[in-house]
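Exercise 7. Predict the structure of GTPase HflX from Candidatus Fukatsuia symbiotica.
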Amino acid sequence: MFDRYEVGDRAILVHIFFSQKKDKDTEDLREFESLVSSAGVEAVSVITGSRQFPHVKYFVGKGKAEEIAAVVKTTGASVVLFDHVLSAAQERNLERLCACRVIDRTGLILDIFAQRARTHEGKLQVELAQLRHIATRLVRGWTHLERQKGGIGLRGPGETQLETDRRLLRDRISLILGRLERVAKQREQGRRARSRAQVPTVSLIGYTNAGKSSLFNRMTAADVYTADQLFATLDPTLRCINVTDVGETVLADTVGFIRHLPHDLVVAFKATLQETRQASLLLHIVDAADLRVDENMMAVDVVLKEITADEVPRLLVMNKIDRLSGVMPRIDRNEENVPVRVWVSAQTGAGISLLFQALSERLSGEVAQYELKLPPEEGRLLSRLHQLQSIEKKWVIEESGHVGMLIRMPVAKWCRLCKEEQKLVDYIV
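Solution. The predicted structure, encoded as tokens:
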């Protein structure tokens, strides 16, 4: 659709320092280099500079832009990657000057998401975000067609093509939105079914590469793809775990967040992030060994507010303590003795039992505990109690053949069970 330069795997990285905090900007640059590495691109040179505010034409100053063009020519790089959001005009001007593709931070993140998408839903979400991004840059497409030409048969082909492109984009976006709407309805049906069955949902959230998928695998014995790279996980994964005094609980692994996450991505992943909004509890996974712990947590808070999930109860999980010296697994509690922070290592498994203990305390609420004596003919009721995983202890009374048992379950589940099995209360000792 566009007459643009081809993208290769050799890139020039550009990062401009706007703040006075040198350490912060250096960490931003390192994160950008990790993004580039995650995209599978080789960085042949890194160009930095300082400005008070972006230049209108090139984002960087004219001299810096010419320096970038000279480095591109010298190194033979095929793409220039900016750690900033560029306007369509700035991208066009830089491409003309450098004679190669220029991609900003948003375009880079979209490319990584396109590489990681595996499920049909994930691919649709990424395509939607890409189309919305492209729609803002249509004005510079088809440069081989003039906007207006004189002469018979040559009047206005460029303008006609531009309008056609816009219509095709609108139609494709509408089609994808329709498909994602159906996916959202399917997810909503699953959530309603879990809600009716009073199955709580715990959603893993956190900054990208904080170790969410590794922890998910450790807690569920799943085999979700993990890697030491940004956005290793894109498609959401749901698994069931058993939590003491709670029973069956759904654990959801979600896409990681990042600073300056493109708004189009947040909108496109609305169906996926719905798991986060409607979760019973959010496990906020934090890389405790990262130098920017506080800033990463703030970045997650910003995204949670944007998707209106900032009111959902949260439990902090400080991961990767194996990389810290002198830090042992533990549970931090508030003044009311409620767990608020758990220190674990998904890599070694240290502290996972404490995490399950904290989950039990945060999810269980009031617990009902009763001693029952079931007659031999109540095999169906006994089977149901086994299915609910609520039997703490069981014994047989030999004289009568009755089965004695001690059960524990959340009060809400006990009340619902009593409504469905009204004779249950007759067997309470």
